Amino acid sequence: MKLIRLVLYVLLANFLFINSVYAATLTATPTKYATTMTKFELCTSSTCTTTTVLGSNTATFNIASASAGADVGSWMSSFALEVGTTYTHVQATINSTFTIAGYLTDDNSNDLTGDPPYCVTVASPTTASSHTTQAKHAGSSSTTNADMSWVVPNMTGSNYGNLTTSFGNNGITKTDGATSFTWIGALTSPYTPKANSAPKFTMSFDVTGQLQAFGSGGLCAIYVKPPAVSISISD
Description:
This protein is mainly beta.
């Protein structure tokens, strides 16, 4: 017996990536934190071997935007949940390249050339972000910024250091150099639909302070850290 979706409220979406920490790290809130998702699934275990596909088309969402929830909700397709089956996790397939934007205020501890007051995202940084390094660019005397590409790093052999533990703790599986990766996150509590259930699906995130930078050879090395996440299903 199938339970057809009756109610779906998606407030905001979030995915976890890295958790690197550097000395003299600058912190700010990004104005853009855009991810491209190709599949989103509901799982019956932490391994996600049995899944229900909630969405499977390519779409980009700015999770720093207030409209993110409506955007994700309209992207998800109609789906059915199995009555009596307990769902515990979600799995997302996400492109490795994000688009980020914002600026950070230097605290004079990063040895930036000329000691400019700001690290800003730019369309064409001196060193483009890659699977092995952050985007790097000269500091600025202005807060003016632009959309910049940022690539989710490899687990090892990169300027980020060894991220094996961080990736494992955050449910990330990424092959070195791959153009996409998967993320698995737990629901706040398991959900088992009944015959009369009207499931309400809610995801929330907070990107406060998740734009980060540090000094590297006189340049600003800019990257993002994972937002806080909460995912739940209820009647």
